């Protein structure tokens, strides 16, 4: 069965769970690093079957191996990548049966659950996840693309972003109109 865009994303996030980062996966596969940052929708629009199959082959090669940790930078990248994948609750390798991983309605094997260390799905955690993705190469991603990456409904993402922006505006306004504000017009 050919690798599907959703199956490619599941394989990539499982490799992230192990600590395989986009730069290292790009080096191993020869694919552009951006491919490993694509959402399922980007995969569907931008990746041909040859790229999806290369992701599948890479997963088969690496699913039970540790990423390189020779240098301090490599160890830090492994740690950051694995920690983020676990915090957002991405499934590890072998969480999906081989015949389910490429099915849109396929789910993890019975009994697999997000780890207890996965970040609760509260508003502040969601904003942190969005900020992480924005810093990791998704600066221009839409709420739909972010929701795909984080496993939240698009509407929930949009509401969280709106609430966060509103809170930022209110904090900025309170700072400007607070009691310690200098009256710039009076001192001019």
Describe the 3D structure:
The chain is globular and about 55 Å long. The longest helix has 24 residues, at 154-177. α1 packs across α3 (40-46), α1 packs parallel to α4 and α1 packs across α5. The relative contact order is 0.13. Mean pLDDT is 80; it is low at 179-188. It is built from nine helices and no strands. With 188 residues, it is mainly α. The chain folds into two domains: 1-109, no CATH class; 119-178.
Write the layout of secondary structure elements.
Elements: H1 5-18, H2 22-29, H3 40-46, H4 49-62, H5 72-87, H6 123-135, H7 143-150, H8 154-177, H9 184-187
Helix pairs in contact: 1-3, 1-4, 1-5, 7-8
Number of strands: 0
Element-level helix/strand string: HHHHHHHHH
Number of helices: 9
Number of domains: 2
Task: Classify the helix fraction into a percent range.
Answer: 55-70%
Mean pLDDT across every amino acid position: 80
Which terms would index this structure?
188 residues; mainly alpha; 2 domains; 9 helices; 57% helix; 0% strand; disordered C terminus
Summarize the structure.
The protein has 188 residues and is mainly α.
């Amino acid at each position: 069965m050919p690798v599907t865009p959703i199956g490619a994303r599941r394989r990539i996030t499982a490799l992230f769970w192990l600590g395989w980062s986009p730069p290292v996966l790009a080096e191993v596969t020869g694919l552009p690093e951006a491919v490993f940052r694509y959402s399922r929708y980007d995969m569907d629009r931008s990746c041909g079957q040859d790229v999806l199959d290369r992701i599948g082959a890479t997963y088969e090669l690496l699913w039970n191996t540790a990423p390189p940790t020779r240098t301090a930078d490599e160890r830090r990248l492994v740690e950051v990548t694995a920690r983020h994948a676990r915090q957002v609750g991405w499934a590890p390798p072998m969480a999906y049966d081989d015949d389910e991983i490429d099915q849109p309605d396929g789910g993890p094997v019975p009994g697999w659950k997000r780890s207890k260390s996965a970040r609760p799905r509260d508003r502040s955690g969601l904003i942190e996840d969005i900020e992480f993705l924005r810093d990791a190469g998704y600066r221009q991603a839409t709420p739909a693309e972010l929701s795909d990456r984080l496993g939240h409904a698009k509407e929930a993402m949009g509401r969280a972003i709106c609430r966060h922006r509103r809170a930022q505006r209110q904090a900025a306004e309170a700072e400007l109109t607070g009691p310690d504000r200098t009256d710039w017009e009076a001192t001019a």
